[in-house]
């Protein structure tokens, strides 16, 4: 796995509509081959105004050619790790399962319900003789999520479009590519789901196995299919909000990355998950 001698501490994963970041100076593209293949797209290494490097990967490929179930999540996380990345800020378009999370809202979820049905390879240990059980009760890195709340709120206020941030939400990750039925959408609400997407898993699980701090910025595009007198979600509806959400995501990233890097160097955001796998590997008898 060649990291081409680049060292980058912070990685950004872009979801639907977010294929590049703003206000960065392009440095180079790298495309590390990992034991799990190549990442979704060549990784862009770019410099913040201070010269600090960040790494950006488009989860669905540069031209959105990779369906959620086919995203090479192990290669994406392994490639970022090979560059030295220790904290990942991931963006994803999501559906809303709650009236008070209208399309256009940004969210920092704190919990996940897994409905990916085991179709996606979800562990670096799969196919090896090592049995590992990562702790995943808190699937997002709590210190990173907590830190993000203030700077994201300020970035949204400063953008001036009235975009709201909600926190402490539960996201359902479904298999797709079809959207949920109305019955499923209602069931997810009863289960306590607030948001729904097709991408946060296995990404979050793999980041944990790689001991990388990970947080998701979920950007709501639609009300999914639970509202009785409204049409069920369609791709066309998702596309309506996608561009505005991506513009705001770029503004958020451009505003907070420098501050995140500085805070990470001072505090323990980057080391939050370091060593977390130490007691996760089953001893051989
Ligand atoms: N991504 C955006 N909207 C979605 C929805 N309603 N269901 C699943 N994934 C989504």
What does this structure look like?
The structure is a single chain. By secondary structure, the chain is an alpha/beta fold. Helices cover 27% and strands 23% of the residues. Strands 5-8-7-6-9 form a five-stranded mixed beta barrel. The longest helix has 32 residues, at 235-266. The radius of gyration is 18 Å and the shape is globular. The two termini are 32 Å apart. The mean pLDDT is 93. The site of adenine (ADE) has 13 residues, from strand 5, strand 8 and strand 9.
Short description:
This protein is of the alpha/beta class and 285 residues long. 27% of the residues lie in helices and 23% in strands.
Strand content: 15-25%
Ligands bound, unique? adenine
The largest beta-sheet arranges its strands as 5-8-7-6-9
Specify Rg, calculated over alpha carbons.
18 Å
Task: Give me the number of helical elements.
Answer: 5
What is the mean predicted local confidence, pLDDT?
93
Number of strands: 9
The secondary-structure class comes to alpha/beta
How widely separated are the two ends? 32 Å
Shape: globular
Fraction of residues in H or I helices: 25-40%
Q: What order do the helices and strands follow? A: EEEEHEEHEHEHEH
Low-confidence stretches: none
Biggest sheet character: 5 strands, mixed, barrel
């Amino acid at each position: 796995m060649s990291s081409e001698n680049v060292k980058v501490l912070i990685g950004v994963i872009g979801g639907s509509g977010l294929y590049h970041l703003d206000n960065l100076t392009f440095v180079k593209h790298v495309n590390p081959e990992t034991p799990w293949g190549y990442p979704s797209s060549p990784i862009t290494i770019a410099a913040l105004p201070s010269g600090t490097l960040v790494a950006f990967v488009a989860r669905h490929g540069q031209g959105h050619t990779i369906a959620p179930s086919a995203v090479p999540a192990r290669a994406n996380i392994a490639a970022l790790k090979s560059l030295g990345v220790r904290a990942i800020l991931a963006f994803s378009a999501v559906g809303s399962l709650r009236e008070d999370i209208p399309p256009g809202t940004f969210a920092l979820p704190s919990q996940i319900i897994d409905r990916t049905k085991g179709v996606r390879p979800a562990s670096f240990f799969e196919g090896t003789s090592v049995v590992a059980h990562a702790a995943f009760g808190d699937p997002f890195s709590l210190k990173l999520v907590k830190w993000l709340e203030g700077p994201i709120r300020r970035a949204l206020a400063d953008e001036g479009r009235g975009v709201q941030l909600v926190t402490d939400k539960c996201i359902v990750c479904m298999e797709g590519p079809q959207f949920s039925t109305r019955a499923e959408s209602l069931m997810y609400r009863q289960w306590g789901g607030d948001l729904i997407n097709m991408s946060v898993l296995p990404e979050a699980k793999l980041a944990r196995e790689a001991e990388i701090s990970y947080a998701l910025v979920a950007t709501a595009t639609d009300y999914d299919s639970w509202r009785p007198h409204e049409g069920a979600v369609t791709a066309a509806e998702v596309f309506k909000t996608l561009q505005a959400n991506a513009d705001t995501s770029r503004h958020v990233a451009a505003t907070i990355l420098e501050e995140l890097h500085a805070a990470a160097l001072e505090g323990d955001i980057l080391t939050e998950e370091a060593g977390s796998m130490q007691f996760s590997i089953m001893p051989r008898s």
